[in-house]
Amino acid sequence: MIFNFLLFNILLVFVFGTSTTFVSSFSSIVIDEQALLSFKSSITGDPMRALDSWNSSIQLCHWTGVTCSRKRQRVTALDLSSLHLVRTLSPQIGNLSFLRGIYLDQNNFHGSIPNEIGRLFRLQYLNLNYNSFEGGFPFNLSHCLNIRNISMRANILEGGLPTDFSSWSMLDEFDLVDNHFTGSIPPSIGNLSSLRVLGLSANRLSGMVPVQLYNNSFLSVVGLTANGLEGTLPTDLGFTLPRLHTFYVSENRFAGPFPPSIVNASNLVAFEIIENKITGPIPNNLGSLYNIEILNLDRNPVGENMQPDDLSFFNSLVNCTRLKMLGLDETSLRGQLPNSIVNLSTTMEKLDLSGNHIYGSIPHEIGKLKNLKIFSLARNLLKGTIPESIGELSKLGKLSLHDNNISGSIPTSIGNFTQLVGLFLWSNMLQGRLPTQLFKVSTLEDLDLSDNKLSGVIPDEIIGFSSHCLYLNLSRNLFTGPLPSKIGSLKQLDALDLSYNKLTGDLPTALDGCLMLRELYMEGNHFQGKIPSSFKALRNLAYLDLSNNNISGSIPSFFDGIQMMFLNLSHNKLGGQVSKKGLFSNISAFSIIGNSELCGGIQALNLSTCPVKVSRNKKTAFSFKMILILVIVPLGIMLACLALMFYRRQNSQKLNEPIPVLNNNQYPKLSYQDLLLATNGFSPNNLLGEGRYGSVYKGVLEPGEHIVAVKVLKVEVHGANKSFLAECETLSNIRHRNLTKIITACSSIDHNGNDFKALVFEFMTNGSLDSWLHPSPNHHEGYEINLILPLILH
Ligand SMILES: *[C@@H]1O[C@H](CO)[C@@H](O)[C@H](O)[C@H]1NC(C)=O
Ligand SMILES: *[C@@H]1O[C@H](CO)[C@@H](O)[C@H](O)[C@H]1NC(C)=O
Ligand SMILES: *[C@@H]1O[C@H](CO)[C@@H](O)[C@H](O)[C@H]1NC(C)=O
Ligand SMILES: *[C@@H]1O[C@H](CO)[C@@H](O)[C@H](O)[C@H]1NC(C)=O
Ligand SMILES: *[C@@H]1O[C@H](CO)[C@@H](O)[C@H](O)[C@H]1NC(C)=O
Ligand SMILES: *[C@@H]1O[C@H](CO)[C@@H](O)[C@H](O)[C@H]1NC(C)=O
Ligand SMILES: *[C@@H]1O[C@H](CO)[C@@H](O)[C@H](O)[C@H]1NC(C)=O
Ligand SMILES: *[C@@H]1O[C@H](CO)[C@@H](O)[C@H](O)[C@H]1NC(C)=O
Ligand SMILES: *[C@@H]1O[C@H](CO)[C@@H](O)[C@H](O)[C@H]1NC(C)=O
Ligand SMILES: *[C@@H]1O[C@H](CO)[C@@H](O)[C@H](O)[C@H]1NC(C)=O
Ligand SMILES: *[C@@H]1O[C@H](CO)[C@@H](O)[C@H](O)[C@H]1NC(C)=O
Ligand SMILES: *[C@@H]1O[C@H](CO)[C@@H](O)[C@H](O)[C@H]1NC(C)=O
User: Which of 71, 128, 266, 352 registers the highest number of CB atoms within 10 A of its CB?
Assistant: First the structure.
């Protein structure tokens, strides 16, 4: 045996010149193989059978994902990206001493990252993105002096950041986005003299950002969004970071003035400081940022230090010819809307100046911004009319002009919109009739014209909305006449608010076509007659308000069987017996006050008991009423039911039609892959909660590292598909507009070829991600998430 080996060795000395190389490299290969087999043995899941080739009958360098050096046949790279591997990372990885690259991204690794990784002194690339690694940062990585890229995005790592960065002189990219790191950013981060990309967004970091960070002159991408960081943005930022390309620091506690030197960072493409406490003035020479595409200052008091009435910075923005998005929502801006906004680049897609103190009127030439998709001037002091040229913005998806003093009529050019999804004009002084052109905008899902002075009848043409419309609010206007008989064609409708108008006639019997209807408000009109039995078909009804009308007859017994959140029948002319069952057993679920002829019901109502039988001594009026209740009403209901059955049989074909999916042209397009990455592969760690129709995940969406909630519909559950949009979008978009808004809907096919449907919501968190993941009842954020989650979960 020994002799054989010697012989073999001598032969090799002959061939290769030296035996020591061979022995060391032979044993090294064994070490590499052992390390890899140990790595393999920690597998608990390999659904794609990716590591089947990892066995001793195959040469190590031919194993899947293994790259060897040519000469010495040592393992130099391990690339096992996206193989859905479930495992821990064996400490033996530290024995693969020739490794230069480790790529384990998009798997399901858990457990800690072993410190043995620090023994890989040749290591240059470490990519552990999108896994479930836990525990602390592997501090021994500081021994890897050649490291260029450390990426651990979207894991559940915690604890502090490394405190000593002095050994990583080659580090180019350091990405720890979306983890649970705490503590502050150490000043020695300034030692990373080659750093180009720094991603620390969506962690739980706090404290001041060390000024040394801004001395890394190679820095190009800075992401600090959604932490609890403080400090000011250095005034010379644009000089010290001349290569700055992307600067995302939204949702922190940064204060102090807007850095004027930003105008000198001529490579800047995106600058987002949403939701901080940055004050003005906004420099009025921003025109030198030729490359800028995204400038988002939403929810900062930048207007506070500005000269009143000085919005001259808009004039310079005219020279930013690549600008796509300008966000100035709730920025305390004060002054007249400059006409120069019409000369902003035609590349503009989103312009948001809502929630300021801007007066004046919408410029007539607004139609020049041909590519606008989202346009908001809501919550300002605007007067004047909506210019006719608005119709030239044919790509518009969302127009928000609500809460201003805009007068005049709704321009007929509105019929030009072919992609409009949301039209929000409430709380203005609009008058005149609804232009029939409006009903041609068949893409509309959300129309709110409430609280204006609109008048005339609601025409039959309203069925133009039938294919998409989910939410229709015409309340608090001066509409007259009966409702159009075709209103039942609005099959997708989730909420209809017609309250406080001057509508007359009977309650519509055709509403039973609106099968999805969940909220119906008709209070404060002049409706009369009985509650039609067709209302029985509205099985999803959660809120029904018919109060303050002239409705007569009795309370139909089918209300007992509908699970409603609130039924308001108060101040009408209803009579007869109140049920004690179902809905009517819960005093906080209904109101019937102001109907003097009602009797019975639960004790808490304090109504008189209903007479048991008709006595001869009673007045004839009463007998007549009883006859009405006992004979005519049931007969009427029977007839109505028969008619309904007939009608439904006729229409059953139509009701089964597939429901069109949200046209997401108006919103950023997101693929299944994007959402997979954003939610760390729909990892259980990102799960916020589960409801009947779907699960809600936390996600971090690029670019901008926006924190979102992704609701994935359980398409296999009956009803989930139908309720895809109606379930969530309307609810979140409408009733809690200020809390959450939908970003997009994604309808596609997952990796297994199954239907995949998801809704993506934006969260306006006040502070860190932590506070909305683990809401405390004392905090406002906690309140928000408590309010939102049940709504979007349903
Ligand atoms: C090793 O892998 C090859 C290729 O996957 C397979 O054909 C062979 O059966 C495996 N051998 C053992 C011992 O598992
Ligand atoms: C490989 O690594 C493990 C754990 O770090 C260590 O215990 C073992 O001695 C190493 N094996 C060799 C052959 O170096
Ligand atoms: C980590 O580095 C220290 C020296 O800084 C060393 O003593 C320790 O053994 C290393 N740990 C591992 C697991 O390699
Ligand atoms: C590293 O950073 C620390 C703290 O900023 C500083 O004192 C030290 O001089 C730096 N070292 C190098 C090599 O730059
Ligand atoms: C930043 O760099 C400049 C010039 O290299 C130096 O004068 C200054 O002290 C540095 N600032 C910090 C905070 O390290
Ligand atoms: C900074 O930019 C402004 C506006 O373009 C320019 O006037 C100024 O000279 C620049 N300063 C430096 C130091 O480049
Ligand atoms: C816009 O650019 C032009 C040409 O470079 C220049 O003459 C003009 O002053 C700039 N306007 C503003 C408002 O910055
Ligand atoms: C917009 O630009 C055009 C052409 O450059 C110019 O004539 C017009 O005065 C500008 N309008 C405003 C309001 O600045
Ligand atoms: C409608 O849009 C077209 C281009 O999309 C435009 O040419 C036309 O002027 C618009 N009409 C109105 C009334 O705005
Ligand atoms: C109800 O009807 C009566 C008589 O028809 C009318 O005087 C009254 O104004 C109506 N009330 C409402 C709220 O419409
Ligand atoms: C029910 O309607 C009456 C009359 O419109 C109103 O005063 C009351 O606030 C309503 N109740 C609820 C809970 O909405
Ligand atoms: C009574 O109705 C209210 C309002 O819909 C609801 O919150 C509450 O849970 C109901 N109580 C019972 C015992 O069903």
Answer: 128
Asked if the structure places residue 366 within a domain, the reply is: no
The pTM score is 0.78
Q: What average pLDDT does the segment 638-665 reach?
A: 37
Mean pLDDT of the region 37-55:
82
Please give the Cα distance from 707 to 178 (Å, whole number).
10
d(CA 336, CA 255): 26
Decide which of 577, 610, 643 is a domain's last residue.
610
Identity of residue 242: P
Is the CB of residue 52 below 6 angstroms from any atom belonging to ligand 1? yes
Q: Based on the fold, state whether residues 625 and 597 are members of the same structural domain.
A: no
Using CA atoms, how far apart are residues 314 and 198, in angstroms rounded to an integer? 31
Whether ligand 3 lies within 6 angstroms of the CB of 167 is answered as: no
Does residue 567 sit in the same domain as residue 586? yes
CA distances from 177 to 181, 190, 228 (A): 9, 19, 14
Q: Which helix (H) or strand (E) holds 10?
A: helix 2-16
Question: Are residues 606 and 624 both part of a single domain?
Answer: no
Within a domain: 336? no
Residue 778 sits in a domain whose CATH number is 3.30.200.20
Helices (H), 656-728: 672-678
Q: How many residues appear in the chain?
A: 794
Residues 586 and 726 in one domain: no
> Is 565's C-beta closer than 6 angstroms to any atom of ligand 12?
yes
Average pLDDT of the residues of the chain: 81
Residue nearest to atom 2 of ligand 1 (CA): 53
Provide the domain count of the chain: 3
Q: How many CA atoms lie within 13 A of 615 on its CB side?
A: 5
Pick the last residue of a domain from 556, 582, 610.
610
Q: Do residues 590 and 736 both lie within one domain?
A: no
Q: Is the CB of 563 under 6 A from ligand 12?
A: no
Judge whether 374 lies within some domain.
Answer: no
Domain of 644? 616-792
Residue closest via CA to ligand 2's atom 2 equals 92
pLDDT attached to residue 769: 33
Nearest CA to ligand 10 atom 3: 550
Residues 503 and 621 both lie in one domain: no
* 789 alpha carbon, distance to own chain's centre: 12
For residue 340, which amino acid is it? S
Q: Does residue 231's CB lie within 6 angstroms of at least one atom of ligand 2?
A: no
Residue 219 Cα, ligand 5 centroid: separation in angstroms?
15
CATH of the domain at 565: 3.80.10.10
What pLDDT is recorded for position 24? 47
Domain identity same for 574 and 630: no
Residue type, 339: N
Q: Within this chain, do residues 84 and 160 fall inside the same structural domain, yes or no? A: yes
- The Cα 48–Cα 43 span in angstroms is 12
Buried b (16+ CB within 10 A) or exposed e, 313-351: bbbbbbbbeebbbbbbbbbbbbbebbbebbbbbeebbbb
- Based on the number of CB atoms within 10 Å of its own CB, is 599 exposed (0-12), middle (13-18) or buried (19 or more)? middle
Instruction: Give all strands of the β-sheet with 755-763 in edge-to-edge order.
Output: 687-690, 694-701, 706-713, 755-763, 740-749
233, part of any domain? no
Burial (CB count within 10 angstroms: exposed 0-12, middle 13-18, buried 19+), residue 418: middle
pLDDT reading at 201 higher than 70 = yes
Banded model confidence at residue 699, pLDDT cuts 50, 70, 90? confident
How far away, in angstroms, is 565 Cα from ligand 11 center? 13
Q: One-letter amino acid identity for 445?
A: E
Binned at pLDDT 50, 70 and 90, residue 744 comes out as low
Buried/exposed code over 560-576 (b: 16+ C-beta within 10 A; e: otherwise): eebebeebbbbbbebbb
